UniProtKB/TrEMBL annotation, chain B:
It holds the Pfam family Oxidored_q6. GO terms for cellular component: plasma membrane; respiratory chain complex I. [4Fe-4S] cluster binds at C40, C41, C106, C136. Its EC number is 7.1.1.-. Keywords: 4Fe-4S, Cell membrane, Iron, Iron-sulfur, Membrane, Metal-binding, NAD, Oxidoreductase, Quinone, Translocase, Transport, Ubiquinone. Belongs to the complex I 20 kDa subunit family. It comes from Paracidobacterium acidisoli. This is NADH-quinone oxidoreductase subunit B. The keyword ATP-binding does not apply. InterPro entries: NADH_UbQ_OxRdtase-like_20kDa, NADH_UQ_OxRdtase_20Kd_su. It is a peripheral membrane protein.
Length: 202, 203
């Protein structure tokens, strides 16, 4: 299948149809060039309904919902800064000094939706949504009301990543049991230690 | 009984045996496995029972669909943590004497999924295993070898004395605790009466 309509066109159509919606194109520079659209929370359901119902797009099939964990990361940059340095002779002199700066980028959780059109035979269109953070505010609007096939996969993303999909009809754990406290697909998950090897003194 | 005397008597057309031999001979040739499979190893187990490999030659032709009628549990495949309580419960429901073959890398140790959050690191953490078969999956020949190994084990069992098997000792357990779903994994993580950690000699 080929991508008949470019992401730029989809973004323009989306913004025209849903007033106030904010979409951002995330480019994929690899040969696959599957660029994706990052959409905001408030208009996500309307945008999704538009993508499904628009006569030109007709993205009637949501094939895949994935969770992605982006942990907090630190970026170290080397910046050249002009500084006034006092030389041994006692003169004030302006010099270029290299400084390392560390910037903390807070982590978030992401849901990725792959959409196809069975009717128009095009796709995938990749839709993404990001949570505010990885802790208590890991919430996203559910797209299950628009694509029924997202129901179990959103449950799976909830189960393994802890993304709470608001508006989901039946948000329960699907693979792990009720009462399980962890989210095992998160990067910082550590499985419980099991002592199956015992060191014995000689 | 003296083996030479036995052979001598059989030359004269007199068949002698002991109750123990007769009992074990009967049991080892009618081991009925429980019908259940957990993963890809189950396909090899099914192949073993089919015409090409024909496990029926060894008396294990009837796979029973009820644990109440089964003697042997072939744990064929990955035991997930979600499935482990059911496997232990099925084992508890089997009548004594009962045996377990852990088939394949997953059933004996967790195999390639050992470091996963969802896989039990070997069924021998909860129930006593008689024969372990490595392999991923083991070939039908390996399962038959394990089965013959089990038959040899049954044949060598004594009915009396200290060496008698577990099911003939009144104070030995026949049922094992079923693990429960906890917040971070199964609780308990293993049954210390059954599972003994690998001991490595350190300095």
């Amino acid at each position: 299948m080929t991508q008949a309509i470019s992401v730029e066109e989809i973004k323009a159509a989306m913004e025209a149809a849903v007033p106030g919606c904010r979409a951002e194109i995330l480019r994929n520079e690899s040969p696959s060039a599957q660029h994706s659209l990052l959409i905001d929370h408030e208009h996500a359901v309307n945008v999704a309904a538009f993508l499904r119902d628009d006569m030109a797009l007709r993205l009637d099939f949501c094939s895949c919902v994935s969770g992605v964990d982006w942990p907090d990361r630190e970026i170290t940059e080397k910046v050249k800064v002009k500084k006034t340095v006092t030389t041994p002779e006692g003169e004030a002199q302006e010099q270029d000094v290299e400084e390392t700066r560390k910037t903390m980028i807070p982590g978030f959780l992401e849901a990725v939706y792959h959409l196809f059109s069975i009717e128009k035979k095009h796709g995938p269109v990749v839709l993404r949504m990001r949570t505010v953070n990885r802790g208590g505010d890991a919430r996203l609007p559910s797209l299950t009301p628009v694509w029924r096939s997202a129901e179990f996969q959103e449950r799976e993303a909830f189960d393994l990543y802890g993304i709470v999909f608001e508006g989901h009809p039946d948000l329960r754990r699907i693979l792990m049991w009720e009462g399980f406290a962890d989210y095992p697909m998160r990067k910082d998950y550590v499985p419980p230690a099991e002592d199956d090897v015992e060191a014995v003194a000689k | 009984m003296d083996q030479e005397l036995k052979i001598e008597l059989s030359k004269h057309g007199i068949f002698t045996t002991t109750f123990e031999e007769l009992y074990n001979w009967g049991r080892k040739n009618s081991v009925w496995p429980l019908t259940f499979g957990l993963a890809c190893c189950a396909i090899e187990m099914i192949a073993t029972t089919m015409a090409r490999y024909d496990l029926a030659r060894f008396g294990a032709e009837v796979f029973r669909a009820s644990p109440r009628q089964a003697d042997l549990m072939i744990v064929s495949g990955t035991v997930t943590k979600k499935m482990a309580p059911q496997v232990v419960r099925l084992y508890n429901q089997m009548p004594e004497p009962k045996y377990v073959i852990a088939m394949g890398a997953c059933a004996i140790s967790g195999g390639p999924f050992r470091d996963g959050y969802n896989v039990l690191k070997g069924i021998d953490r909860y129930i006593p295993v008689d024969v372990h078969i490595p392999g991923c999956p083991p070939r039908p020949e390996a399962l038959m070898h394990a089965f013959i190994t089990l038959q040899k084990k049954i044949d060598a069992q004594q009915l009396t004395g200290e060496e008698r098997p577990r099911h003939l000792k009144a104070n030995e357990p026949s049922e094992f605790p079923v693990p429960e779903f906890g917040e971070h994994g199964l609780e308990p993580a293993q049954n210390p009466d059954v599972f003994h950690p690998l001991r490595i000699l350190g300095q």
